[in-house]
Design a protein that fits this description.
heterodimer, A: about 110 residues, mainly beta, six-stranded mixed sheet, three-stranded antiparallel sheet, 11 strands, B: about 120 residues, seven-stranded mixed sheet, about 0% helix, about 55% strand, globular
Amino acid sequence: AQRVTQPEKLLSVFKGAPVELKCNYSYSGSPELFWYVQYSRQRLQLLLRHISRESIKGFTADLNKGETSFHLKKPFAQEEDSAMYYCALSGFGVQGAQKLVFGQGTRLTINP
Amino acid sequence: KAGVTQTPRYLIKTRGQQVTLSCSPISGHRSVSWYQQTPGQGLQFLFEYFSETQRNKGNFPGRFSGRQFSNSRSEMNVSTLELGDSALYLCASSLHLGGSLTGELFFGEGSRLTVL
């Protein structure tokens, strides 16, 4: 079964402090992991994907297959980072078709 | 390029009624997925359609159904509404390349359903 766990529903840090949003997954195959973000009054949108190994808005995430984790990190938080963050896993469902499974999300608040 | 469009944006129904929600994907996107978003459960996968075929279904009762048309537009239907069906229903479209999803879903703004 495909499962994504985000242990923190709420996370609050001060501006300029480091941020780490935790994500653990369960999947027997080779997963593709993503982080999606939803800013206030905006649509849910892709932030980054592990396969690209990119840094978006200062955020990075490394896939650790040994620990089955895909934590999202940023060294210096900005107020505009306040949003809801979802970790997602793309695996295969029935008929060989892929589906995206989301964690429950972490609401990140950056305090001034 | 126009984004994913969902209608209606808001609706109020009473228990026992049924509802149909509509989704127009981004032009060229042939995969459409539906999610239910609630504060307690987060984003729950409902189903995914590609070329008018349902390829994946989440763990929802049979009251939840959907379909996709030849122009990739999709509808979902919920019959015999219950109070617990109150939620934001999100539609997302995706580009489908070589048999695999690219993994990037483009979401609509959602249809907020309130069941009284």
